[in-house]
What does this fold into?
Amino acid sequence: MKYLNVAFALARLTLIGALMPFAIGWRTPLFAGWRLTALIVLIALPLAVIAFELWTLRTTQSASRAAPRALRFISLVSILLGVVAFGATATLEGQFRYKRHTVLNADQRALEQLGRHLLIGYRDSSMLDALIERRATAGVFLSALNVQGKSIATIGQEIAGLQEIRRQQKLDPLWIATDQEGGAVSRASPPLSRMPALAEIVALHRDRAERQLAVAQYAARQGRELASLGVNLNFAPVVDLNHGVVNPDDRLTRIASRAISGDPAVVTEVARHLPETIQLLIHG
It folds into this structure.
């Protein structure tokens, strides 16, 4: 029984230790899609472990029997890590809320001057509305989270509403950006159709004239769809070269699956013509 208790205590210690990197890096963009759930877990779990460890220590003392030294040590370390994990999460969240409050209540003129240089992403539409009302941004980035579960018409109406605020403020239209490369990186799909990666288009058309026509058709379709949302800036295409190197530790850039080609001339050709066609359609 003694060894079972120690094993259980070690499991709790391992659990709280595994939470530490997440608590310390709580505001990382990797949590953007499930921020509230992560916050609840990172607050509730350390508190639960702390409470259980304190209860365990108190129970052994009230029963007039001393807990094994190893068990007491593990419990104390678990409590310490739980306090650090809870404190790190709460501190970072508190700092974020304080900074947000400071921004929203900053000097109007200073906000407008800074906002001319900023393009922001958002999770809470009310916060976005507040920033636009305060003239604190020049543009908005649409992520998959912002368009999830919405129709093209709904998103278009939302963007049109934001642009109407800008017109009333007598300011230039907002830059409405997204990352719609095609293939794996298609932040607006759905509701937009998921188009193949440009590398697939290039691979299917070795002839230069055929490739240019295929890229033009691809760009025209993509441009029309982006325009239907109100998007006027697309962070594409990727102009890195594909050297065929697949790094298992690269979980973010994934250039091997996103790059147009390993041939600099082909990448230059596609990257020159694609944006021209898309921007023409987006801006009419």
User: Anything to note?
Assistant: The mean pLDDT is 87. The first helix runs from residue 2 to 24. The beta strands are 119-121, 139-142, 175-178, 180-182, 185-186, 233-234.
